[in-house]
Design brief:
The chain has 21 helices and no strands. It is mainly alpha-helical. The protein folds into 3 domains: 293 residues, no CATH class; 113 residues, no CATH class; 88 residues. It is globular.
């Protein structure tokens, strides 16, 4: 039994460096169809265009090269169209609210398992659930569905073009930002003494950002001087021997349009380092099962196997969303799909994180409802005012949600309450009451389901990940202990294998530490394995540098 913490639940963090891009992309993707519909007097059709427009929120951390981002965004658009099609077909096929809730709950579970398996990145699966669940409760006829889905597909294609357009000017920007984050994370690590309590946390952050940077770069299959330079900078950051001020300077320059070859001093322009960096990036590209990249076509089938953590999590989502929707229906609320979305939004990998997300959602909705009541007269001034208000709060959501989930919820509430009025104005009291009841119902039942359906194998997965780290560490130790210089390819593969195993151990331990009704987690063994593995990673990175490979 582990107590659920209240301390720090509403603490704000730093905004991500991607929010201006996501905000501008979704603003353009939403503004064009919304203003056109407002001009022709058909803002009621915006409920079908919003789904396609919100696809512009996805994939901003993926590189433009090798069509990786293009394929990912195309899959997002296709997934949105299919989800909306299921919702609209349900609305046309039945008037039973209970059946519609059940379909919305199953869609929420499918969105959760696919999103977590593919790891496409923010903003998460709830956007799909919100749009598809809303479609399941719209008045609909089968003859109208093709036209409505065509609107979703058209705006999805517009979102695709908006997101891919910057690649014509700054094709290396996603990779540059990923490496810049790794350099920024490595800089404080170099300044933190080993005996400082914050050193372990800094090491974990630096390793995670470096791993994510290698994954991003591995999606680019074509070699170029720019790619080699980025890999070289990342390799230098991982050795731990570079001046932290130099790391910070490189990170600042990477965020600008400075040409990459000018970032390096002559000492770093070494053929062996370039060769090692290129080999590292290539090794991360191997789509092996359980490998560093964890490609979508590998993870998705394994996520559906019996005993899978994602399958259990999707079961929580399906049961929790269905119970929340049916409870809202029993309370007489007119929009039970809000309860479905509320329940879907709080489910996290373990109970502790689910508890934190539920508190954030409730608090953000309370503040958001008060703000909506104050701003209600503005939304009554006409359809154009409604459209502009939705666009404003969409940008505000992107600017705030990465700082704190509850802060972003304040803006999301405004959009949720404004969109139902595209067809006709609705009573403010009814909207506020429905939203409050649905939020409380969805969060409460979602928490109860998270408590009832326990992940009893969380510690087993952590111990399996610990064994994988020990095996990878032992193999790397044997390699570095050889009297002769190890082969470059062997060093590279050992480095990638250990980094991948360490990342999976940290993820498994985080999940197990926040779940209740578990066996005791071997915290001391995990801490020791992480410390020894980080030292080995530094040694391997140093072995790949010019100082050690003369």
């Amino acid at each position: 039994m582990r107590p659920l913490q209240m301390r720090g639940v509403l603490r704000l963090g730093r905004a991500t460096d991607l929010w201006p891009k996501t905000a501008l992309s979704v603003l353009l993707a939403m503004a064009v169809p919304s203003l056109v519909l407002a001009a022709v007097g058909r803002v009621d059709l915006m409920v079908y265009t919003v789904g396609g427009s919100t696809c512009a929120l996805y994939g901003h951390s993926l590189p433009y090269a090798a069509r990786a981002r293009a394929r990912a965004l195309a899959c997002v658009v296709l997934g949105m169209v299919v989800s909306n099609g299921v919702g609209l077909a349900t609305a046309a096929a039945t008037h039973s609210t209970a059946v519609r809730v059940a379909v919305a709950a199953l869609l929420a579970a499918a969105h959760k398992v696919v999103y977590d398996a593919t790891r496409i990145g923010p903003p998460g699966n709830v956007v799909f659930t919100f749009v598809a669940a809303g479609c399941a409760f719209l008045p609909q006829h089968f003859t109208d569905i093709p036209g409505h889905l065509a609107l979703t597909l058209a705006t999805g294609l517009l979102a695709w073009m908006v997101c891919m357009a910057p690649g014509l000017v700054r094709s290396q920007e996603p990779q540059r930002l990923a490496v810049a984050r790794a350099l920024n994370a490595a800089a404080p690590l170099a300044r933190t003494p080993n005996d400082d309590p914050a050193h372990a946390s800094a090491c974990r952050t630096a390793a995670a950002t470096a791993t994510e940077a290698w994954r991003t770069m591995s999606l680019v299959h074509t070699y170029s001087p720019e790619r080699q330079t980025l890999a070289l900078l990342l390799t230098r950051a991982e050795t731990g021997s570079t001046d932290p001020r130099e790391l910070a300077r490189w990170a600042r320059l990477l965020r600008k349009t400075t040409p990459l070859p000018n970032l390096l001093s002559p000492r770093l322009e070494d053929n062996q380092v370039t060769e090692a960096s290129t080999a590292l990036s290539a090794d991360w590209s191997r789509p092996c099962r359980g490998g560093p990249l964890n490609r979508c076509h590998v993870r998705l089938p394994s996520a559906l196997r019996p005993g899978s953590h994602l399958l259990l999590l999707s079961t929580r989502v399906a049961v929790g969303c269905a119970l929340a929707g049916w409870a809202s229906m029993a309370l007489g609320v007119g929009r039970p799909y809000w309860a479905v979305v509320a329940a879907a939004s709080i489910f996290q990998p373990n109970l502790a994180l689910t508890w934190r997300r539920a508190l954030n959602r409730v608090f953000g909705n309370v503040v958001g409802l008060a703000l909506f009541a104050a701003l209600l007269p503005i939304s009554r001034t006409g359809s154009l005012a409604l459209v502009l208000a939705v666009l404003f709060f969409q940008v505000a959501t992107e600017a705030t949600i990465s700082r704190g989930y509850w802060l972003g919820q304040i803006c999301i509430v405004q959009m949720s309450l404004l969109m139902p009025q595209f067809g006709h104005a609705q009573p403010a009291g009814e909207l506020l009451t429905d939203r409050a009841l649905d939020t409380l119902t969805g969060c409460a039942l979602g928490l109860l389901v998270a408590i009832a359906i326990t992940d009893r194998r969380a510690v087993d997965r952590a111990e399996s990940a610990l064994a994988a780290v020990d095996a990878s560490h032992a193999a790397a130790a044997r390699l570095t202990a050889q009297p002769s210089a190890p082969d470059l390819a062997d060093l590279v593969h050992a480095r990638c294998r250990l980094a991948s195993a360490l990342a999976q151990l940290h993820e498994a331990a985080e999940v197990a530490s926040g779940e209740w009704r578990q066996r005791t987690l071997p915290q001391e063994r995990i801490a020791a394995a992480e410390h020894e593995s980080r030292q080995m990673l530094t040694l391997l990175a140093t072995s790949l540098s010019t100082d050690q490979r003369q």
